[in-house]
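Hey L., structure's done. Input below.
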Amino acid sequence: MTEQVWCGVVELRQYTLKPGQRDVLIELFERELVEPQEALGMRIIGTFRDLDDPDRFVWLRGFADMAARHASLTGFYHGPVWAEHREAANATMVDSDDVLLLRPCGPFTRPKTPGKPVTVTVSDRHVTGSQVVATLRSEHAPNTFPALPVRENEDVAVTVAVQDHSPEPSPETLRLEPTARSWLR
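Output:
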């Protein structure tokens, strides 16, 4: 497997789920929704269980650029795979609109010590970690697919890292366990 992934635009997606539905969504997602998205040019970089919230699913999805994002999302959300599985997926969710649109500062690199939790820190600056695998900044381009809202008018730095210790407190730090099919494992 490749050790680096480059995407021009990345979504950090945080879903609040109905109680007890996270593993239902993850099983459906990994069985039915990964390959169809990747076939349309999207890259599923990471899928995670939030270690501090049993009703949250977090994932990172990448695109070549904003035009490719529009084309890929249009193809997927107006296509047969989503039509077949959207009711089952949406039945697990309370909210899927907590989304940051980001621009990577470099490629994502595969963790050197797999099996450890991944932290995603959203702050006003990048943070240091024992093993930073990606740094990103807010993408301020207009949302090219308004059917999927994003958090607008935010200027944030996002650091994705593998931590050997608890991260320093910040406004938003997610401690995540990669799912079975996550590229960031």
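The mean pLDDT is 93. The CA atoms of residues 12 and 60 lie 5 Å apart.

-- N.
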